[in-house]
Amino acid sequence: MNQPYTPADLPEKIQHYINGENVDSVDGETFDVLNPATNTAYIRAASGNNKDIDRAVAAARTAFTDGPWPRMLPRERSRILHRIADIVESRDARLAELESFDSGLPITQALGQARRAAENFRFFADLIVAQMDDAFKVPGRQINYVNRKPKGVAGLITPWNTPFMLESWKLAPALATGNTVVLKPAEFTPLSASLWAGIFDEAGLPRGVFNLVHGYGETAGDALVKHPDVPLISFTGESATGSLIFANAAPHLKGLSMELGGKSPAIVFADADLDTAIDACIFGVFSLNGERCTAGSRVLIERSIYDEFVERFAAQARRVRVGHPHDPATEVGTLVHPEHDAKVMSYIEIGKQEARLVAGGGRPEWYSEGNYVLPTVFADVAPDARIFQEEIFGPVVALAPFDTDAEALQLANNTAYGLAAYVWTSDLRRGHNFAQAIDAGMVWLNSNNVRDLRTPFGGVKASGLGHEGGYRSIDFYTDQQAVHVTLGEPHNPTFGKHEEPSATELDDPDPR
Length: 512
Ligand code: NAD
Hints:
This protein has 512 residues and is α/β, with parallel strands linked by helices. It has helices at residues 50-65, 74-90, 92-103, 107-130, 163-176, 195-203, 217-226, 239-249, 274-286, 303-319, 338-354, 386-389, 405-413, 428-437, 471-476, 503-507, and strands at 16-18, 21-23, 30-35, 40-46, 135-138, 142-150, 153-157, 180-184, 210-212, 232-236, 255-259, 264-268, 296-302, 356-359, 376-379, 396-402, 420-424, 442-445, 464-465, 478-486. The longest helix has 24 residues, at 107-130.
C-alpha cells in the first residue's frame, strides 16, 4: 500500500531568491513539481529564464564589487559558515523530511545527506582560516608570494540526486573563498534548495551574496552558462549535459569544473572477505535508490566464487526493502520522477534481452502508483551489453565473471566513464597495484564509499574534468596572483641607452 504522506507546513509556492528577496519569475512562468510517490503535482515553482538570471547575476555582481563579503577576513566569513552549519544541523530532521518527500530518497539516507551538508560548511569554514599560500625567497634578491582572490560571481548548477548535499558541496567553498553565487538547482527537486535562503539570512550572510534561480536547464541553466559576468561554472550532472555546457562556455573562456556520470566497477577477488564484499556491493548500488554517481553498478567477480556470489547477492537483493520514502525501514524509495523512472524501466527491459535476470526486473506489485522499482540484478552480462556500458542511475546492477587480474582490469576499464572503483581482495600488493591501474578518479580498497573531505573528488574520461574537494575547491574558486618583489638591486638590463645610430647603421641591409 502506498501510504500518502505530505509534510506539514509546505510553502504555498517555490520562488527564486534574488538580492535578499523571494521573487516570482519576471515573466510569471512556473512549473509543476511532482511527489514521486504519487506522481501528482504538489506545488508550483518559479521557472526562470534569461531575465531572471540577469537579475540574479546583477545582484551577485553588486554584492561582489561593492559588498563586504569578498573583503571580510577569512575568520569573519568562517564564523558565518559555522553558523550555517549549526543551523543546517539543527534542522536536519526537517531537511530530510522535505528532501525525502521531493526526491523519493529513503528518509534515513536523506538524514545522512543533510548532516553531510552541514559538515561541508564546517569543513570549508575551518579550511579557509587554515589556508596557506605559497611564499618563496631567494635570499637577498627576491621574495615571491601569492595573493589569493575570489573570482566573482560563481554559477552553480546541480542535479536532483541528493540535491541539498550537492548544493552544499559547491556553495560552501564558493562562499568560503569570498565569491558571490547564483545557484540553479535541478528542476525535478527544487524544494530543499529553497531552504537555503532562510538559513543564510539567519546566519548573517550579506544580501545579494547568495542568489537562487529555479527552472529548466535549457533556459535558466543555459542563461547562467552564457552570462558574461559569470566567470566560472561548477556543474554536476550528466556527461552529455557537461559537454554541451563546455561548448557553450567556451566563447567566454570560463573556468569549469565538471562532475559527470559514472558506470563504476566493483571488483571482487576470490580472496576477499565475501560477506563484507557482498554487503558493500549491495549498499554500493542500491543506496540512494541507485541514483548515485559513484554507484558500483558493474560487479566483476573472480570465476571461482562467481556462482556462489551471484546466488547470495541475488538473494540479498530480493530482501532489500522497497518502501515509502518516509518510512524509516525503507532501504530503496521511489525514483525521482516518472521520466527518469521510464528510463530505468527501459534499461531493465533491455537487460532482459541481454543477460540473465536473477533478481527484481520490474515494479513491486504492492504499489499501484509512484516510481517504485525493485532492486534488479542481471548476471552473465557481456562487456558490450548496453547495461554494462551505459549509466542507468537506478537500482540495477550488472554482474560478470573474470578469470585473471588482467581480464578484471580490462573489464573494469572498458567503459567511457572513469569516476569510481571498488576493489575487494585480501592481497594488499594486488589491491594497491590494481587500484593504480584502474582508470578512475577515486578507488575504494576494501571499503565502502566513505570519503575524507580533504581528498580530491572527481572523475576521468567521460566522468569529469577537474577535481574539487579540500584545497582543490579553494583553487577552483580563486585566482592565484603571484607577486614578485626585488630585495636587492633590480636585475635591470637596459635597452635604449645606446648612442644615436649612425646613418650607415640605419642603411645596413643585414640587421643581424
Ligand atoms: P542533468 O545533466 O540532466 O542536469 C543537471 C543540471 O544541469 C540540472 O540542474 C539541469 O537543469 C541543468 N542543465 C541541463 N541542461 C543544461 C544546459 N543546457 N545548460 C545548463 N544547465 C543545464 O543531470 P541529472 O539528470 O540532474 O543528474 C544525474 C546525473 O548527474 C548522472 O549522470 C550522475 O552520474 C551525475 N552526477 C554526477 C556526480 C559527480 O560528482 N560526478 C554527482 C551526482 C550526480
